[in-house]
Design brief:
The structure holds two protein chains of two kinds. Chain A is built from eleven helices and 14 strands. By secondary structure, chain A is of the alpha/beta class. The mean pLDDT of chain A is 85. In chain B, α1 crosses α6, α2 runs antiparallel to α3 and α8 runs parallel beside α13. Classes of the chains: A alpha/beta, B mainly alpha. Chains A and B meet through α3 of A and α1 and α5 of B.
């Protein structure tokens, strides 16, 4: 059964007169991958920083692992994070950086260093110092550091920024693996919905500091499904023809009597021909459905 | 907190800047000791010694403290290690306290070249001149001319050098607070901190000269003449007073730093 890991209640953050977060309410449940999506400046990083205690909300409350108030600072040891750029000492190697963070967090198991370097694909960096790493390598090391404490909630702010296409796929697979095998909950931010679509199970859309929508992957897929919208005065006959002549039941009768047909979206002519041949009168016939980008744009009210 | 301190020392151990700073301080300590000796033998004039005063602990330790604060605190803001510490098990108070402990230990390590050169110089009993600046270490060297070697004397000098480490930490404690305020701008911390340390050092003696009340007031700060005047004749009570003043200053500035850092935004 899913447990609530994090709950924010009316989190508001102001810098002077500038309100960057406005009554943010989100709930994260264990074992899921949450995509926090918003354009640059939408408030994604600010929200993550409130959760991590790096910034104090102007008002509102955070509940972390069932704890509130001052006691949540102890619960933050159950978090791992990568906010913007990773915390690295550039004069140290990947392993030395991990060693430093391991000491800082009081983790006794030295073997975890090699294990994590292997996991993020930095096992062969040897004596190469972090200052000589590419941006992608630094991001991977940052992810390794975030995973060092075997956290229950991992917060990753734009973790695939600067990664090459292969790196993006690897990190995406790693995120999925962590969620599936270790049951970690992951909150990952991005300004790119199609990118998050590859791994997230839930989506939180934020814009101008306000949560516009929190939906599951299933709901998103439903909303972005393409279909043929057929309007007719004789809904029963249309349904019967679709079943008997086109052999499909993958349609939905809407309250206004129109039908949303989810099959044959690429064979519109075939559908119109069959309807005509069987005497089904149509008053409307169009291909409907959102792309991920359009859905996001309409969700944030930019269209 | 102990984990934070251990992590700090792991990082320091692998950093070049602290090693270079320690070597520079060692060179300065050896030079000031040699100058003291050669002035006493007549090979150098007392005027030359005045120039060498710039290499003494009075100047160099203030500079070293500011560099250490800049590197230790601003460096961690810059490479986001403070962020890592805060998102781990450590609260802000723990982070500030841990940094102050590391800072005090580092400043103590940085005073070692002066402490060791003065004690080794004392043991060599090679003859040294009157202190050409208000340095405890030069006073120890000078006292070797009149005080015979004894375990008690050496132990007392070791205690005095340890107290001086505390005094330098206390004198520069505001630099520690400044570093947490300006975050990742280590150059600002080093520059402003050093100018302010030298300014306080100079004005404290001037203020103390104005009246008995001013003198009394200064005597309750780490810039007290009691600290710079420590030697074999110094009574235990005076030493304890100096230690107490240093600890109160360090504790107060640690708390002030916490208050300023408590609600700071961490980028």
């Amino acid at each position: 059964m899913a447990n609530t890991i994090l709950k924010t209640e009316n989190i508001t953050k102001k810098y002077g007169d500038n309100q960057v977060l406005s009554n943010v309410n989100i709930t994260l449940e264990s074992g899921r991958i949450y995509g926090l999506i918003g354009v640059n400046g939408a408030g994604k990083t600010t929200l993550m920083r409130q959760i991590l205690g790096l910034s104090i909300p102007t008002s509102g409350e955070i509940e972390l692992f069932g704890k509130r108030g001052k006691s949540i600072s102890k619960e933050r040891s159950r978090l791992g994070c990568l906010i913007e750029s990773p915390g690295l000492v550039l004069g140290l190697t990947a392993k030395q950086n991990l060693h430093l963070h391991r000491i800082m967090h009081g983790i006794a198991d030295a073997g975890i260093e090699d294990q994590l370097l292997e996991t993020v694909g930095l096992a062969n960096t040897g004596k190469k110092k972090a200052k000589d790493f590419s941006l992608g390598m630094k991001q991977r090391l940052g992810i390794a550091i975030a995973l060092l404490t075997n956290p229950e909630l991992v917060i990753l702010d734009e973790p695939i920024n600067g990664l090459d296409p292969i790196g993006v796929v690897e990190i995406r697979e790693l995120i999925k693996k962590l969620c599936e095998e270790k049951g970690m909950t992951i909150l990952i931010s991005s300004h790119n919905l199609p990118e998050l679509y590859q791994c997230a199970t839930d989506y939180i859309i934020i814009d101008h500091g306000e949560i516009k929508e929190q939906i599951t992957l299933e709901e998103l897929e439903e909303k972005c499904k393409h279909y043929l919208l057929i309007e007719t005065p004789d809904t029963a006959k249309l349904a019967e023809v679709l079943e008997s002549k086109l052999g499909t039941t993958n349609f939905k009768v809407m309250p206004d009597g129109s039908i949303q047909l989810y099959d044959f979206t690429d064979e519109k002519e075939k559908v119109t021909d069959v309807l005509f041949e069987n005497g089904v009168r149509t008053t409307g016939f169009s291909l409907m459905g959102e792309t991920l980008e359009n859905y996001f744009i309409s969700a944030v009210g930019r269209k | 907190m102990i984990n934070l301190i251990k992590a700090d020392f792991y990082k320091i151990h692998r950093s070049v800047i602290y090693k270079v700073l320690f070597l520079i301080l060692t060179a300065c300590a050896v030079t000031t000791t040699l100058v003291s000796h050669f002035v006493s033998t007549g090979d150098l004039s007392f005027e030359t010694a005045g120039t060498a005063a710039l290499l003494s602990d009075v100047v160099m330790m203030n500079l070293a403290c500011c560099i250490v604060a800049g590197q230790l605190i601003c460096g961690d803001f810059e490479n986001k290690l403070i962020q890592s510490a805060l998102t781990g098990t450590s609260g802000r108070f723990t982070v500030v306290c841990g940094k102050m402990v590391t800072y005090t230990l580092l400043v103590s390590i940085m005073t070692l070249p002066y402490a060791l050169s003065s004690i080794i110089g004392f043991l060599l009993d090679a003859g040294y001149c009157n202190p050409y600046t208000s340095s405890v270490y030069l006073r120890i060297l000078f006292e070797s001319n009149t005080i015979d070697f004894s375990v008690a004397a050496i132990l007392k000098y070791i205690v005095i050098t340890a107290i001086m480490a505390l005094i330098y930490t206390a004198q520069s404690a505001f630099v520690f607070t400044l570093a947490f305020l300006v975050k990742n701008k280590s150059l600002i911390v080093t520059t402003i901190g050093f100018i302010a340390c030298v300014f306080f050092g100079m004005t404290s003696s001037l203020i103390a000269g104005i009246s008995d009340t001013a003198k009394e007031l200064i005597s309750w700060t780490p810039f007290t003449a009691d600290a710079y005047g420590m030697g074999n004749e110094t009574e235990v009570g005076t030493m304890l007073k100096v230690i107490a003043i240093a600890l109160i200053f360090i504790t107060s500035f640690t708390y002030i730093t916490y208050l300023t850092f408590k609600k700071t935004e961490i980028k």
